[in-house]
Design brief:
The protein is of the alpha+beta class. Helices cover 18% and strands 28% of the residues. The radius of gyration is 21 Å and the shape is elongated.
């Protein structure tokens, strides 16, 4: 292999710029670009900052806007927006609606008549002390009817130990290991799973930080999530992305919709699992 003359940082700039546009039909350099992304310390996991003051913003729904686009714009989950505004569907969003959107994931809950903070805490399975601290309440006896409380971590970061399937579908069109490339017919090593998911919602396999969201050459629209413990998960050929870089996501949170972007023979999800720079067979780790 020829020596690389560019400094590593400069090389990353060149590679990242190329992600913003599709690669040619031959997909030259896709694996190299992807591996540079996976091995970069810039896409490693880092814990969220401790001090993050809550802000509640309002958003007027415009014609043509989708919940996924709004969620990505504000860097929160679609579940946070649905739960805070009593929406019952990801796909039905009335034009002209005024949405309340907290600056981080959780749920805005309005106290009902006869309801106290203990009942709210029990319903969401969040400690009373945490709700009091988050909302700067000193005495829970004086929480008035109609008061809006922010419920942090209304869902657990990880629902189960390990990793969950990112789609409802578990049928594979291509597994992990040696195969014939569908475009070149050459023998190559497939480092992930191709899951038969036809334009369905894709969920985070585990709690983590979104460290890349955008175009990734032949992998099309892609999301990379860094998890605690040196793990990373990659989701490729997406038709829609609902998260943005720097956002923290919980296990099972919707992050995208599967699709047919990049070098793809049909709608599916390309899914990879990496540990400290080495690819793993996801089948052995998914619950």
């Amino acid at each position: 292999m020829a020596a690389v003359c560019l400094p590593l940082a400069a090389l990353f700039v060149v590679l990242f710029l190329s992600y913003d546009r599709p690669v040619g039909g031959e997909g030259v350099g896709d694996e190299e670009r992807k591996n540079m992304l996976l091995l970069s310390s810039q896409t490693d996991f880092s814990a969220p900052a401790e001090d993050s003051t809550l802000h509640v913003r309002t958003h007027h729904v415009k014609n043509g806007e989708t919940l996924s686009r709004i969620a990505r714009q504000y860097g929160v989950s679609m579940d946070t927006i649905c739960g805070s505004n009593r929406l019952t569907s990801y796909d039905m969003l009335p034009v002209g609606a005024i949405l309340k959107i907290p600056s981080r994931d959780g749920i805005l809950h309005s106290i009902k008549r006869g309801q106290d903070i203990h009942a709210v805490a029990a319903y969401y399975r969040v400690p009373v002390a945490k709700i009091l601290a988050e909302n700067r309440i000193r005495n829970y006896d004086f929480v008035q009817e109609g008061a809006a409380l922010f419920i942090p971590d209304a869902k657990p970061m990880d629902m189960v130990p390990g990793f969950i399937w990112p789609t409802l579908s578990r049928a594979l069109s291509c597994g992990y290991g040696w195969r014939r490339d569908p475009f070149t017919s050459e023998r190559d090593f497939h480092k992930g799973l191709d899951i038969r998911a036809r334009y369905e919602w894709v969920k985070a396999t585990k709690y983590g930080k979104v460290t890349y969201a955008g175009w990734l050459g032949g992998y099309g629209m892609a999301v990379l999530i860094a998890h605690p413990g040196g793990y990373k998960s990659l989701y490729g050929h997406l038709s829609r992305i609902t998260v943005r870089e720097g956002q923290y996501v919980k296990q099972g949170q919707v992050i995208a919709k599967s699709g047919n972007t990049g070098r793809s023979t049909g709608p599916h999800l390309h899914f990879e699992l990496i540990k400290s720079g080495a690819h793993l067979n996801p089948r052995g780790h998914l619950k």
